[in-house]
Specification:
Layout: H1 2-9, H2 17-36, E1 84-89, E2 96-97, E3 102-106, H3 109-144, H4 150-182, E4 185-187, E5 192-193, E6 203-204
Antiparallel strand pairs: 1-3, 1-6, 2-5, 3-4
Helix pairs in contact: 1-2, 3-4
Amino acid sequence: MLCHAIRLLTPIGYPNGSRFLAILPFIYIVVLSGCSRKEPQDSAPKPVEVTVSPAVIRQIVEFQDFTGRIEAVARIDVRAQVKGYLNKVKFIEGGEVKKDDVLFEIDPRVYQAEFDRAEASVSQASVRMNRLKTDYERAAELRATNSIAKSDFDKIAGDYSEAAAAKKLAEANLDLAKVNLSYTKVKAPISGTASSCGSAGRSIRSGSGRTA
């Protein structure tokens, strides 16, 4: 539209055609150059690649992730009840153990000897008590007929009572020796995971130091 307007107005207002013709080529070229320029066209963008999958209908379990700390329900320090040398360790650190499983074994020889001595003392006290019991029963019959002096009867009765008490003491020592002997095997009080263990060969003191 602009190019056509300039060409139509060229002969008007300029009687001297030579001057206008000298300027016309420049204007015409410039105008034509401006009219012939085309606006650049944007190229079409490439399609974006996406990953697709067919829709599936199924049940899902809703869950959420939380950061937390796990702590044992019960924590027990296992300590030796008797002293001695640690002979065996019967579990692996971090392994699972069940209640009453043997965890450690302490050298039982000393405690076995004490148990045997206490057992022999009970037998000895029983024999002595039975003998004095027979003497007491015989003395009681004689005392009923005044065939024995009261002082002699009292001595026999006292010896028998002393022998009965000695037997009870020997039995108590035997029970203690039996308990100490059983303590040479350290057992798990509950089921769970053992956190740490001692090394075989080291000395264990009674009631001191955590062994598991």
